[in-house]
Amino acid sequence: MTARAFPCALGAVLLTLALAGPGRAQTAGPSPTPDHMPKPGMSAPEMADRAAGRFPQPVRVGDLPGRFLLQPEESQPVLGRVTGLVRRDDGGADAIVRLDGVLGLTRLGLQPLAWSGVGARLVAVPVEAVALLGEYVALMGMTPERLRALPTFAPGSATAIPPGETLRIGIVRPFH
Amino acid sequence: MRSPFRPLKVPDPSILDDHRPLVRQIERRGLLRGGLSLGALTMLTGCDVTDTTAVGRALRAVSDFNDGVQAALFDPRKLAPEYPASQVLKPPRFNAYYDVEDVKPVDGEAWRLELAGLISDKRPWTRRRIAELPEREIIIRHVCVEGWDYIGQWSGVPLRAFLERVGADLTAKYVAFKTADDYPSSIDMASALHPQTLLATRYAGQDLPDPYGYPLRLRTAVKLGFKNPKWITAIEVTNAYPGGYWESRGFNWFAGL
């Protein structure tokens, strides 16, 4: 090996170690999903069962619109914004959530600018699938993928629950 | 090709001869070794604070010094801001060192508040007897060490009134708490006697719901959130440092606001 080739080879080895080291550690195996995170494909009774264990607390319906819906992971990403609550056919309640479209500003945390971007749409999420986290709401009963796959909710297609009514919704601690 | 970084005028080679013993001591490995111990030092912040190494003791000493400064700055007559009822968050935020699904509700009828230490009347208290004591309501900001906060409306007997009633030694250093969820905690006597420190039994006018500490919890406006133990089962007045759940894991003990 020539004197010039040696430092090059050493540099290449160091670079490989630096790049491959953490990469290998990450692909060693998936870390176990924390217990509070939603299991994929929970049925409605399973969701209700988990929700009942979260000590449902009374909350005024009028206090919910405008709250961010958070994903239950450490960085607490914003998934959308609650716009209101409607009565389901089975007597339960759905939270209507506006999902961001392209260029949605909700994710940036710009609360005064409620514009959710081009192609924003509403979906109906069973209240059993959410929990109250202080002044936020967290998605506990379904994965973000399932939330985004929900059919679009047409405003006026269900009876809105008046703001003065009180519902009982489970609570959850912060995820960080 | 000549390196562009090579100076046009090189130093006199005799300089190297003058400093040869020093140059022989310089090793690249030294840099690696130094880097490693620097890394070890940063890792120590997550260590057990009972760590007996010199670094552990030094970090602990700085933390204790900070506690002393906070205690010296604390003004027992200065009130924390209070807020209008319209700003109260209902229900309040829940937090604990475990998930809400693991909360074990306390049976209010069987519950007793035990007293220990420098207290003359150590008879245990029932919910009914505590409800007969004078009550105060405060609407204060709960500030968590994690960085979030909310405004809550708490009522209950001021801790000062309770300590006076049971004949506690108000010159003692510490008031310590034991809880049903195994979350020991303690505060300094000056904060315990502060008018905005309550043994809270109600939130927003209702009995405390189970996950927020029913039947009795501490709520003080002059400390961070983690200094407000829930589901209190025993109070001790003492001069021996009692520590606490997070304090034994490296948090500051005084944790004033």
Automatic annotation (TrEMBL), chain A:
Keywords: Signal
Residue ranges of the region described as Disordered: 23-48
Secretion signal span: 1-25
Keyword Signal: yes
Record-given protein name: Uncharacterized protein
Organism from which the protein derives: Methylobacterium oryzae
Lineage: Bacteria, Pseudomonadati, Pseudomonadota, Alphaproteobacteria, Hyphomicrobiales
UniProtKB/TrEMBL annotation, chain B:
Domain of life: Bacteria
Span of domain Oxidoreductase molybdopterin-binding: 104-246
Cited InterPro entries: OxRdtase_Mopterin-bd_dom, OxRdtase_Mopterin-bd_sf
TM region(s), chain numbering: none
Name the UniProt record assigns to this protein: Molybdopterin-binding protein
